Amino acid sequence: MTSPATSSRRTFAIISHPDAGKTTLTEKLLLSGGAIHLAGEVKARGQARRARSDWMKIEQQRGISVTSSVMTFARDFDGIGNITFNLLDTPGHEDFSEDTYRTLTAVDSAIMVIDAAKGIEPQTRKLFEVCRMRNVPIITFINKVDREGRPVFEILDEVADALALDVCPMGWPVGMGGTFEGVLDIASGRVSRPEGPSREFLGKVDAGAVLPAEVADEVELAQAGYRAFDLEAYRHGDLTPVYFGSALKNFGVNELILAIATYAPPPRPQPSNQGAIDPASPEVTGFVFKVQANMDPQHRDRIAFMRLVSGTFRRGMRLVPSGLGKPIAVHSPVLFFAQDRGLADSAEAGDIIGIPNHGTLRVGDTLSEKNEVRFVGLPNFAPEILRRVALKDPTKTKQLRKALDDLSEEGVIQVFYPEIGAQWIVGVVGQLQLDVLISRLEAEYKVAAMLEPAPFDTARWLTGSEADLRDFAEFNKSNLAKDRDGDPVFLARSAWDVSYQQERNPALAFGATKER
Ligand code: G4P
Q1: Domain residue spans in the chain?
Q2: At residue 260, does pLDDT exceed 80?
Q3: What's 285-368's CATH class?
Q4: What number does CATH give the domain 4-263?
Q5: Ligand 1 in reach of 471 Cβ (< 6 A)
Q6: Among 247-251, 296-300, 317-321, which range has the highest average pLDDT?
Q7: Rounded to the nearest whole angstrom, what is the distance from the C-alpha of residue 115 to the centroid of ligand 1?
Q8: Residues near 428 by beta carbon (within 8 Å), at least 6 away in sequence
Q9: 325 pLDDT above the threshold of 80
Q10: 4-263 and 379-515: same fold?
Q11: Which of 102, 185, 267, 482 has its CA 20 to 30 A from that of 298?
Q12: What does residue 116 show for φ and ψ, rounded to 5 degrees?
């Protein structure tokens, strides 16, 4: 059972492809919660952050957001009470999918934003898959209905198809583009309009006199053709409720936040070596899903983002990070508000707190009072691009090693140290990660490096008995490397290479992901 305090938390992420309107929607959600008073502050905050750190240059140049952040805000709802929302922003670019994947391990639900004119893009499908893998239920928000969009049925069918689950339209746009009039709430038959009061219809379907006939027909068809809303099915990840609106016109956003408050699951039990840990369990436990270093180059600060899984955290508390084995006192935990950071005096299950540290906390670490629980399920993903790192100045080897270790820990890249040869290899899921790597090596570690092609296509983590691993190593030394934890990795020339070796070595497991 969850305690009342716990169930007032909603920890969710917004995911979308770039330009679908995630930033605009985030801004409006924060506004609706009274967290900020002026639209544009999310962007302003972004700019201040960019001005502060050099490596964000890439973000600036390409106009995309490459780091996730956390925003906490609260709002009162009639009949529901005060709800605290922890909104985790995710990078919208496919190249940062690893970071996004890990963020999804820390949330209980997600909002998927889709541009009504564009529909679902390939990288968005990938995100859906991760949500499914993690059992993260999705509320879909079809954005930009104030613009000319595609037929609503087409969008809905595409969502159903991409998610391989049922869609349930909760609203219906009345007109689109130039003729846009508002969104009909299917359950109440009320149309809320971009400006002015809402208009009520007598019957949602048979109100043809007021509701444009074609809209009434569409809604009737939709009700017959799609499944009715079912809370269990949504929470179980079998159904996605679909809302329509315009983030820019601040329209439909209220309905969306109300849906999160009403339907989105409160903090859920998290899988561990001791079974699922319930949020109401009294011991304070949590896990680190992200580490961000050098947010401020002046101070070399490093913040570990921890999702609190159970217990009530109080400032100054001593917790044991699993990677360290001895307790640390958490004196300056940070809560992230819209414009500001504040010290967190206490936090509940579901909350995200930032813990400043000097490298003691790593992604995947469990923090707990008793040092017994270990949370599982924070994966590394097999890289899809591998490159050799070449130094322009060979005397900088030590700095490079430190930088690669740091940045792999942060999850910017993965690093592999081959058994034969002196050139280290970095692996990423997307090209942009490599640009960030070079830029950060220069800006933060004063290391000028180049990337050269590596004769490998992908990597697999090897597990098996010591004897089997030894046998394999004997014949495949030139394809073997160690990752930053010293675990053996098979560097493959192709996907074919992987299946060939897998067939020849059935006693070994070739993992495409690795638990952190
Ligand atoms: P992102 O974070 O998902 O990348 O998207 P962002 O919010 O930055 O929005 C991308 C563009 O789409 C922006 O326009 C934004 O104003 C616009 N937009 C967002 N929501 C809506 C909507 O509901 N309706 C319409 N018509 N447009 C919307 P831009 O011109 O690229 O940026 P800006 O100059 O307006 O900031």
Answers
A1: 4-263, 285-368, 379-515
A2: yes
A3: alpha beta
A4: 3.40.50.300
A5: no
A6: 317-321
A7: 10
A8: 95, 98, 383, 384, 385, 387, 413, 414, 434, 437
A9: yes
A10: no
A11: 102
A12: -55, -30
